């Protein structure tokens, strides 16, 4: 596996850590939203730029994945996963576009934390089902006779030649 695959993850971690260290770490503060109410909450006062900087980088990665997923949706059967990746990325963008205004208009900090947790859970569940549900369906419900795989043979010019392989042969390789 190529080392350049890990670059976006390492860059994200470095961006998050450097934003926190250079621009200041979040502080724990007490907040009383309504002066007449006997409700004081302890919350993490994270500056807006420290919240949005990693989020903008994630948005850039999501938009890049969406563009590549859309452009590669009509490639041969070897790359038929790009449509599912495109759907997953688009639903992720939609969930985050709904989440951000809701997050910043929440009145209490515990509502913000609950909304963030729900958004992350929903995002992970949608991604899990949109990417892995077709694989599970094919594994359990598609007959072995209907499965054709495409292979890239080294040293030959018949790239994309069909070869019939049963699911037992594929699972024995793994």
Q: Main sheet?
A: 2 strands, antiparallel
- The H-and-E topology, N to C, reads as HEEHHHEEH
Number of helices, where a helix is a run of at least 4 consecutive DSSP H or I residues: 5
| Whole-number mean pLDDT | 75
As a whole number of angstroms, the C-alpha radius of gyration is 23 Å
Structure summary, number of beta strands? 4
Uncertain regions: pLDDT < 50 for 5+ in a row? 156-174
Keywords:
single chain; 174 residues; mainly alpha; 2 domains; two-stranded antiparallel sheet; 5 helices; 9% strand; elongated; disordered C terminus
In short:
By secondary structure, the chain is mainly alpha-helical. It has helices spanning 7-23, 48-71, 82-105, 109-141, 167-173, and strands at 27-31, 41-45, 149-151, 161-163.
Describe this structure in words.
The chain has two domains: 3-141, no CATH class; 146-174, no CATH class. It has a two-stranded antiparallel sheet. It contains five helices and four strands. Helix 1 runs antiparallel to helix 2 and helix 3 packs antiparallel against helix 4. The longest helix is centred in the last third of the chain and has 33 residues, at 109-141. It is mainly alpha-helical and 174 residues long.
Write the SSE topology:
Blueprint: H1 7-23, E1 27-31, E2 41-45, H2 48-71, H3 82-105, H4 109-141, E3 149-151, E4 161-163, H5 167-173
Helix pairs in contact: 1-2, 2-3, 3-4
